[in-house]
Amino acid sequence: MKIKYILSACVLYTATAMINLNAKTLFDAADLHSDVLLNILEDPGYLDKDKPGQHTSFRTIKQGNYRLIVVIVSGDFFFDRNMEKPGWISRRLWKELGKYRLKKREFAGHCIDLVKKTFKDKKDFVLVTGRKDLDTVEKEKKTGILLGVEGMRVAENPGDVEWLYENGVRVFGLVWNSDNKFAHSHKSKSGLTEEGKELVRAIAKAGGIIDLSHASERTVLDAIETAGRDCPFMASHSGVRQISDVSRNPSDEAIKAIAGTGGIIGATFYRTLIKNRNNKSPVYATTDDVLDTIDCMAKMIPISNVAIGTDYGSIIPPKGLENAGCIQKIGAGMLKRGYTQEEANKVMGANALKFLRKALK
Ligand SMILES: [Zn+2]
């Protein structure tokens, strides 16, 4: 009896030690959508600092063990002349942006250079423009920076896709919260315009990734039909309507259509998209709300199509996920909810890296 007791105690001890070891192993993380450009525009030295309340810094990126961050270098909100100043932009920056509204290429070029300059000569970072850069990222455990645009207002015509691609942009979000001349936003029932179809073909031809977050369901379906199922699609930062029934979240049909092409959906940290709005309590999201969104996505589509897109830089982050260094809590939370290490690993970053390996040249 005594030997039996000692043996089972040993087994229990080993199992507990393994769980602890797993808990300490860092996941390779990927963030499909970061608005850190807005912070860098306000202060070019932003990432060197690490102030309370700061979403992203060089220190928290390291702590989060990121293999990839998609950094947005142009947004439709920069160029929408009817738009009122959003809360997440300072008055000073909003005024500065005003000067650039008619000089789109100049401003986008300035933002692209600023982001490149921020990460250049930093030994832990690599600008990712092709598959070979992903090799460096994975072999040398660096953080890949992939450039994206959020809305195509930056382009005068479909021909501008080539210019953006040549300058390193690989993720092309078609539209933001208001319709542009190429695509209709989530608030609309319409889809791509004729020029939008041309634009989507140009993105597919160049080898870009089409981001369908913020798009209407019709835009999602039109884009897939126009570019073809071989084109890489994602919804980089989204929630699900089963939890938050707002138009900004893609419909179940849109999520399934994107996943059906092999595309990925990034669960966002943006509180109104992941918190049930029927709940009248203050809309503060928590880590559990992000996990609920991941649970819901994983029931709707294969877990190999689920990823993370935080939206750090322009959100009020969920409690527990205050900065980029906290992202490991998502993987740990998934393990606690009964997901396997492999499943947590996939959502944390492996799915995004696999998708990019296939999408990039
Ligand atoms: Zn967005």
Automatic annotation (TrEMBL):
What PANTHER family does the database record attribute to this sequence? DIPEPTIDASE, MICROSOMAL DIPEPTIDASE
Write the protein's name. Answer: Peptidase M19
Signal sequence region: 1-23
Q: Which Pfam families match?
A: Peptidase_M19 (PF01244)
Q: Which UniProt keywords apply?
A: Signal
Q: Biological process GO terms, please? A: proteolysis
- According to the UniProt entry, the coiled-coil residues are none
UniProt GO molecular function: metallodipeptidase activity
Listed InterPro entries:
Metal_Hydrolase, Pept_M19
